């Protein structure tokens, strides 16, 4: 289980980049780290469910 997560960064020419109010970098990084932690917890739980089992692989 994985998620391709990243903090938003403005892209020239996009409406979001032109917005006057931007989310502070500290808030973006806090949100990113919290999301990564949730993803990691879910991946760990999924892996633990398979612990001790035998799986057929190609």
Question: Which structural traits does this protein have?
Answer:
single chain, 58 residues, mainly alpha, 2 helices, 52% helix, 0% strand
**Termini gap:** 19 Å
Radius of gyration: 18 Å
Principal-axes shape call: elongated
Helix percent band:
40-55%
Low-confidence stretches: none
Share in β-strands: under 5%
Mean pLDDT: 95
Number of strands: 0
Strand-pairing-aware structural class: mainly alpha
Describe this entry's structure for a reader.
- With 58 residues, the chain is mainly alpha-helical.
- It has a domain of 33 residues.
- The protein contains two helices and no strands.
- The protein is elongated, with a radius of gyration of 18 Å.
- The model has no long low-confidence stretch (mean pLDDT 95).
What is the fold's blueprint, element by element?
Layout: H1 15-18, H2 25-50
Quick description:
The chain has helices spanning about 15-20, 25-50. By secondary structure, it is mainly alpha-helical.
């Amino acid at each position: 289980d994985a998620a391709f997560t990243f903090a938003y960064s403005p892209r020239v020419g996009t409406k979001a980049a032109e917005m006057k109010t931007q989310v502070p970098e500290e808030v973006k990084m806090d949100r990113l780290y919290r999301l990564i932690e949730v993803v990691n917890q879910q991946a760990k739980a999924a892996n633990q469910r398979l612990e001790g089992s035998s799986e057929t692989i190609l």
